[in-house]
Write a structure and sequence with these properties.
disordered N terminus; 19 helices
Length: 477
């Protein structure tokens, strides 16, 4: 047996440590689906995460006035970095990576601070390219925070319990629902042309959603595994027939785009660096929640030594991957939670699918025109497919919390954390006049709810004692 499979096959936890889902997995973590089926499922992971990977780069470049050529480079490198980082996370190299079917993509958590730092640099006389050098420098050196933190996560087993991680997973899913419904209604483009929430957008998105739901419940394994892809293809085809897809932007894309590491260089400013320290800590908390959800929907343990070894490896991989992303001229990478919904809906939790996903992302990054075809998928189509997936993530979190028993203490932790976490999501203006540091930390519902859950779990009386287990590191071949 290869050492790469060791920690997933030898030291499996007792059944009591594994969350039971009604997902009826077709392929478990270490199963190897046939090539055709693996590629089939991989395409759906790509479709579920593609827009999320490229959107932060597009928003940041637009805010900083970056040229279209440089914007295209950053978007392409975002996809290439996601491919490389996904492979590292799924394959696992020594202590680096979780070994789960966990995809990496550009983090939205850094969006506000990155734009703030870049805008301040430009206001002080820097060019957009010099601002990018500062941003990538802060991202590169900040990744060390997550790398160091990952080595001490096993000491936090008394604090980072299933109640905390389950609550974070619930907030992740519930927060993303807002994004999914925004897309289903037409997205930012629809707001500009005053078609947001139009009957056409809602009908198109609703049709895709209905197709995904119906096929997910199918007894045919191929229809179930292809539910998301089929829904997107049908929606895409209808959109083309209705004249909603504009392919004109594809003619300006180069045939191949090769990476140039450190194209813009690296710069550093300690004052601007402080918020990034906190952001990387928050990103680690989000990653723990994402990987817990991945373990749960894959039928793997969510407590014990195997679980914590995977969490440590995943957070370490997160930090190293963010450094790699900065070298490749793009923004920090983190685990993507929406893909947990794909696992639950397709019933495929095999980490080998991640290898195919990594390859597809790399190709999309190197061949811009292929990525461009995905980029012009109408927002209502994407929203219809992703909305049900985001709901599935929230259900995964609910299952994790429920596995511990919903006593009065647990209910209070979950209730307060959800209230505060979702409160800043649905009423972000409450932080509008607060200092930048406060806004950077608490503007994310995941960080607000996650920090609340951790604090309440520490201070509320009656916290059950958790046996702190050693988490040995295993080297990989």
């Amino acid at each position: 047996m290869a050492k790469a499979d060791y920690d997933s096959t030898v030291e499996q936890e007792a059944a009591a440590n594994t969350i039971a889902f009604q997902s009826e997995l077709l392929y478990g973590l270490n199963d190897k689906p046939p090539m055709g089926e693996a590629f089939y499922v991989a395409i759906q992971h790509v479709l579920a995460s593609f827009v999320g990977i490229i959107t932060p780069g597009l928003l940041i470049c637009a805010a900083l006035g970056v040229s279209p050529e440089d914007t295209g480079i950053i978007v392409s490198m975002s996809l290439l970095a996601s491919g490389i980082c996904t492979f590292i996370q799924c394959r696992k190299f020594g202590p680096v990576g979780s070994g789960l079917l966990s995809l990496q993509g550009t983090s939205f958590a850094f969006l506000g601070p990155v734009i703030g730092v870049g805008s301040a640099a430009i206001a002080s006389g820097s060019t957009p390219e010099q601002a990018l050098a500062l941003i990538f420098g802060l991202c590169f050196f900040g990744s060390a925070v997550e790398i160091i933190l990952s080595r001490f996560l096993h000491l936090l087993q008394q604090v980072i319990t299933p109640v905390v991680t389950g609550t974070v997973v619930m907030i992740i899913g519930l927060s993303l629902i807002k994004t999914g419904f925004f897309s289903l209604s037409g997205g930012a483009a629809a707001l500009q042309n005053e078609t947001y929430g139009s009957t056409q957008n809602l009908a198109l998105g609703g049709l895709v959603l209905a197709i995904v739901v119906c096929l997910t419940l199918s007894q045919n394994r191929f229809l179930r595994m292809g539910a998301i892809a089929i829904g997107l293809v049908v929606g895409y085809a209808i959109s083309i027939a209705l004249g909603l897809v504009n392919f004109s932007s594809l003619s300006n894309l180069p045939l191949i785009r090769l990476p140039i590491p450190l194209r813009y260089g690296l710069d550093f400013n300690f004052t601007a660096f402080v918020p990034f320290i906190l952001l990387y800590v928050i990103t680690a908390i989000e990653t723990i929640g994402d990987l817990t959800a991945t373990s749960a929907v894959s039928g793997e343990p969510v407590s014990g030594s195997t679980y914590f070894r995977r969490i440590k490896g995943g957070v370490l991989g997160d930090g190293i991957n963010s450094a790699i992303a900065a070298v490749l001229n793009t923004f920090p990478n983190t685990t993507f939670s929406q893909n947990n919904g794909v696992i639950q809906m397709t019933g495929v939790g095999s980490r080998y699918v991640g290898f195919y996903v990594a390859g597809i992302f790399a190709v999309l990054g190197l061949i811009p025109i292929v990525g461009g075809i995905f980029q012009v998928i109408p927002q209502p189509v994407l929203g219809g497919a992703t909305l049900v997936m985001f709901g599935s993530i929230a259900v995964a979190g609910l299952n994790i919390v429920a596995s511990t028993g919903l006593d009065r203490r647990t209910s209070v932790i979950v209730a307060v954390s959800l209230a505060l976490g979702l409160g800043v999501v649905y009423a972000p203006e409450v932080l509008a006049d607060k200092p930048a540091l406060i806004k950077n930390v608490f503007s994310s519902g995941i960080s607000t709810g996650g920090l609340t859950a951790i604090l309440l779990n520490i201070v509320l009386p009656g916290r059950p004692k958790v046996k702190v287990e050693a988490v040995p590191e295993l080297s990989e071949a």
